[in-house]
Structures
1.
Amino acid sequence: MEIGVYTGYSLLSTALALPEDGKILALDINRENYEIGLPIIEKAGVAHKIDFREGPALPLLDQMVDDVNFHGSFDFVFVDANKDNYLNYHKRLIDLVKVGGVIGYNNTLWNGSLVAPAYAPLRKYVRYYRDFVLELNKALAADPRVEICQLPVGDGITLCRRIS
């Protein structure tokens, strides 16, 4: 599953890595952005692996959590959507990812702002989302159901392997 597709760059990478019968549930609030990258996805021959759903992710995740058939049904989830919902996504995704599966959260170093002093000048959107990303990082570090590894690549990616 991928939450926050934008134009589909990471979606394409994941689809290329999947076996021919692999599937990705792709969630994004804007289909127009996804369609920008769709010709490349089609040219790569992996469009049949993608089930794109337009709309907010939380209502669909709630439906899936309510249906026990979805519990433990995902091997991998990549989250790169609205940072203020990362913790809400995690609370739902932990039930949907199988034990041994991985959830990846993008931008968990958040422009270096997490270690910046409170008085540091930050762009407005960086300052707004800073506390949400910090709260997520603290919650993941304390979550006994996952082992985490934060990769200092780009703007940071935190990988959570579900262990229970």
2.
Amino acid sequence: MHPVFLRIGSLAEIHAATATGPLARGRRVIARTGRGIELGEVIGPCGNSRAISDSSVTIVRATTQEDELLIRRLDRHKRQAVEACRTALAESGSPACLLDVDQIFDGGTLVMHFLGPVDDIAASVTKAVAEKYESIVRSRHFAKLLSDGCGPDCGTAEGGGCGTSCSGCAIAAACK
């Protein structure tokens, strides 16, 4: 195992993680976190074994060209969701201030970050915007393939590596 530090999310949270192989600084990766499958960026090696043993973050794989295309699509929809939410909050008279949004890589979840308290109006506005966004980008089949590949732990050492379960594995190319 190769321990690294990852930068994840719009707030640039730093997490210790493990990878199956060495990864260069700046490399974008798909990681499994407590929130789901997320995009991360390697910021350097981690020599702290305690940080790794306490970490719940694992690197699934490095991003592929297909992932980068999907990331651009998700970013476009995310920007639209942020602007729609900010506009709706201003029009409703809510004092809530939306800072930014994290999107989970499968497109099924938005995590909204606010400055200060969130009132009932802001809660209902953000719920409506999130539901609209998620209905646009969500693909349950894609999310399942992204998470599982051709079976649980596909592409990991526990699952026997890539391509061992089926020849049509959705993530086989990324694992090679």
